[in-house]
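note to self: dont lose this again. the chain is below, predicted strucutre after it. 319 aa total, dont forget to put it in the shared folder this time
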Amino acid sequence: MELNQIKDLMQRVKENIRKVIVGKDEIIDLLQIALISSGHVLLEDVPGTGKTLIAKAMAKSLDTSFKRIQFTPDLLPSDLSGINFFNQKESRFEFRPGPIFSNILLADEINRATPRTQSSLLECMEERQVTVDGETRMLKRPFMVVATQNPIDIQGTFPLPEAQLDRFLIKIRMGYPKTQESVEILKRFKEENPLDKIEPVASEKEIIDAQKSYSKVYVSDDILKYIVDIAEKTRNHKDVIIGVSPRGSQALLKAVQVYAILKGRGYVEPDDVKAMAKPVLCHRLVLKNAIMAKGQAEIIIDQILNEAVVPSEENLHKG
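---
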């Protein structure tokens, strides 16, 4: 698939999601960036801001399988992965797959499940495989986890450990809509739910082809050094205990390549790195003052972006 075809595909999906979602173009773009770069997304905000709705709208725009599971404290790992059950009629064990065997998995309120169940997602998200009773089964491509969580509730929740947070390519805060957007939402949902009417506009094959092709975007050595410099500065920052790992640097590289396609280019510019730095890197930082950490990671990334030497526009183009 050519890069301009990937851009057309993403625009088609975006326009379809817009039939349901009002005023969240940037978040729609981030979701698609994660999808094309084979990453996962963590949506965080208070209840009622549209986290589940935007995930469903994207899933319904793709001609792929979609499953939703509500995370609760009594949810077991087998409720995700599936079980082997004994078929008495045929006198043999059969595997009954869980919701993890889907292309798009919506993990609603992931921080309400126990650490044991949360950790069962790790192998699936990173390795794209599930092991049940010693037998490993590969997950079908494309595979994407969209998890949601409420940052306000404390009682009955289990904060995601840093090792699990690092599995998410992007963390997004939905935010409240503006006044006019709120009015438009009331109009749109007054008589019926527009989610019920949208149809798929992208095939499974198109998504897979795009995932295989986005890496054609050219990234100069100067941009690679810029990404590494930003990551290293997070590790040396006075307010950071653990900075961005090499996996985080790789995640940023993937994200900026897809972002460049969105902007209609076949090469990455420094502004692409700046645009994707906070969504990709902030949740990977472990700060010294965790209690006062709300919004602090964004401030630190802004400081680092101001300090890092920006590559010149020379040699950004291939050849």
